[in-house]
């Protein structure tokens, strides 16, 4: 069942205590309030619902309520009791449907037939301190794609040697038992999980997520050496910060003085854009606040990142972030050595 932004607004306004007249008379203010509660604009919320419906048809209009509860959970990371009070549902019901929709969004394929993307997802599992955690890879090369994808070039490929920017980002968690210093991260002065994220230089999309890893046991360079570098071919490299020094065959770091001024400034801009990606991720409180669920569910949450960030970017909803992406698209005109 396909819906429109008006359907989303009418459903949300019921639980926000607003009349249709109030919404119509204060459209801009309401949209700002809607984004504050649900993390996206009504138009994008409707688009996400329609994409979910295309993948797995949903015939009950009442499910829109649970869909909005899921977005509010991701945006605010509030406890189930609060969601149950706001949406006037039972706590167990809300809890069940929130995680149902999280898994639906996580498995959503954003690549449509009209968009000529040459990358795709592979999902594998590994063990993390006896707990099952999800690792997601998005391959970077056409010659590592399945047979039906062979020969498709990388999007906006211009022969650049540096394909992606890479960096690690940490997230707060509760102290797992038994106590171990292997979880410690100095960023929070406490336990945390670390993910490696790579952003395509030519397009600005998240093309690689690897994790989670215990912060104290895995530094950024160790995570990359365990997996990402094996995806490079020939002399391909990634643009990275100083935490990746010591492996010039894989990473172009700021201390290298072999580049001209133009190349240096463009790489700095690409790294700055990557930091903006990390910041955008943590606009969702489920990633900003201390994670109170199981580590297995945190791994599943990582599957949402390309959907949440890429969808907002495609919709032009990110303001200065979209402008920054458009300005760095000039990188496609320069071969980054």
From TrEMBL:
Signal peptide: none annotated. The chain crosses the membrane at residues 63-87. It comes from the Eukaryota. Its cofactor is a divalent metal cation. Pfam families: DDE_Tnp_4. Keywords: Membrane, Metal-binding, Transmembrane, Transmembrane helix. GO terms for molecular function: metal ion binding. Residues 166-303 form the DDE Tnp4 domain. This is DDE Tnp4 domain-containing protein. It comes from Seminavis robusta. The lineage of its organism: Eukaryota, Sar, Stramenopiles, Ochrophyta, Bacillariophyta.
